[in-house]
Amino acid sequence: MEDRRAKLAAAQRLIAPLVTQSERVRHPLGCAAIDDCLHGGLVQGALHEVAAAEHAATPAAIGFLLALVTIAAGSQPLVWVLPRHSDFGLPYGPGLKAFGVDPGAIFFLRCANTQEQLWALEEVLRAGAVGAVIGTRPTGLDLTASRRLQLAAEAGATPLFLLRAPQDHEASAAVTRWRVQSHRAANDSLGFLAAPRFAVALERVRAGKPGAWVVEWDHATLCLRLPAGVQHRVPEQGSGLFAA
Amino acid sequence: MRQTSGGWYLDAPCPVAKQFGLYAGQLLSDARARVPKLITTPVNRAQEQTRLRKLNLWCTRFSPYVAPWPEIEDGAAGLTFDMTGCAHLFGGEPAMLHSMAAALAQLGLSVRLAMADSIGAAHALCRHGVKAQIIVDSTTQTQALRALPVVALRIGTQTVATLRHLGLTRIADVMDLPRAPLAARFGEELLLRLDQALGRVGESFSPILPHAPARVSAILADPIRDQDHVLKLAAALAQDLMPLLERAGLGARALSLNLFRVDGQVLRIALRLASASRDPAHIIKLFALKLDALTEAFDPGFGFEAARLDVTLGQPLEPLQAGLAQTTADATRLTRLIDRLTSRLGSDNVLRAYCRDTHSPERAMVLKPAGAPGIWGDCGLRPLLLLPRAEPAEVLALLPEGPPLQFKWRGLHYRTECAEGPERIAPQWWRNGESPTRDYYLVEDQSGHKFWMYRDGLYGASRPPRWFVHGVFA
To answer: Taking the model in full, what pTM does it have?
Structure first.
């Protein structure tokens, strides 16, 4: 056992210089269970993908994505590359404000085609001038293109959060991939909706381990927490486990 | 030829037609009687004006201050140039006139050029002088004007006719007369025009290009066609521009690159910056993005032979000190990024959200080209995503004056588990076609999907209320 530990330590020393500077900056989510799986938190200069478990859960996926963005970027300016078509409408300023995101800090970009969209994402990432970039993963984005985005995120030390379509099975170079299902919100003592909750699964994480939790977003303190007394189950794609 | 109430008249006969004795203003029937094989086309003033304007733009390669004459006289159109400080670029005044004549002749135009101290004298010599190219200075100007007919003074036809009737046909005849009787007989105009021609009274004109705080130009020995060469040229111009801006204490907020084609067309590439800049590398990057976006619209024709870079809008910019604060560096990086995005995507596609003081939810936010950040106060309970248009929902069961218990939206059934509301939003009565009073509810179904729904209208009103989904919550 001692021998194996020493070997592991030696191996870690060996790869230490290969870990880029941007990978060393991590943003803890504030929930010990999740941060353990993430090796300390979300990597700053990296591509993160968030997918809805089913089409109807897309708003929930966007909500969870924004929670991650807020944790990673704080009050820095953001860039949101708008999709050309969205089934659930466009981001709404007053709603963003209510969620805890300052709409005035966001630059919205509209692109004519996928090519322009990828150019814009890369340009913004490499500039390293904003806190985070939000986008929609173009359908059929291949591994090479997604690797390009990952490299751009590393180069600019800027996190990129892409919303992934529920049925998208294409391979990607994302450092983390989350799957989100809608969940009943927390009610306060008067029965009013107090804080949105999301059933999330960490499906993929580089050098970490997957997991599944129900998390609650506190829009006042801008942090995620794990509510007590909620059953944590893995939301499977399209299974509707949480629908019953 | 042109049509008037009296019939068709000749407008601008060509030199050959003039040899046959035809003149401008002649009745077409008379002209036809003289020359039966006369070829005529109707005048198209609008087309002439646009062509003149294009020519005017192209001529800004000689001097930035050019304007067309107010009207086309006897079929001859003209341009007024302010040549102050321009001639040395072409190797002196005679050389400049030669190169202008040569360049314009290449466009297939027959030109007459006159350079004088006053606009009036230059105009008179150009229209009525003997030589096709003439330069007069303050000493020879008066002498040159004396021999010209009075019509060269830009005075009304009525005055010309009266003067001719009195036997005053040349400018010399009018010049030597006492002024007081002339003013009494012909009014102010004649004396004013005479004084303007002689340079006794100042005269100004409005060039079509607005004043630019700084501009630099280059004339090329050989025309260039390649996009890379254009960029190199623009880079050289931008380098030249910076000392001018620095001396003026300005940064560029808007620029335009004018590329003059051999065939008389001008390609104009305009650029706006998010904040004043004096960095040639940044400006060139933006032009490169603009040129890339042009693709097919980038048409060099037979090549560009001259270029000019104008700062169309300048803004005071303090000289930057070494050792910038980190925040300033971050801000610069951001504004430069926004500039690059705006250049490539267009300013309508780089947007920011601005709050509007209204209760109407669909009007509360507006996306506008990125400028200063919008200020957002607390807006209350609002959905994260707003549908572009509220969509009708079929309500299957409800409490009277309450939220729906069961509803169908986009073909799916939802059962309400929890609801919050209502928030009543009254219509803006001053807007036409505004829907009736709305009661908004946050409705959550048993799987946690949250909708922002409203009831359109009140119970007991003339038509039954309808339900709509207007947005979704996370």
So the answer is: 0.70
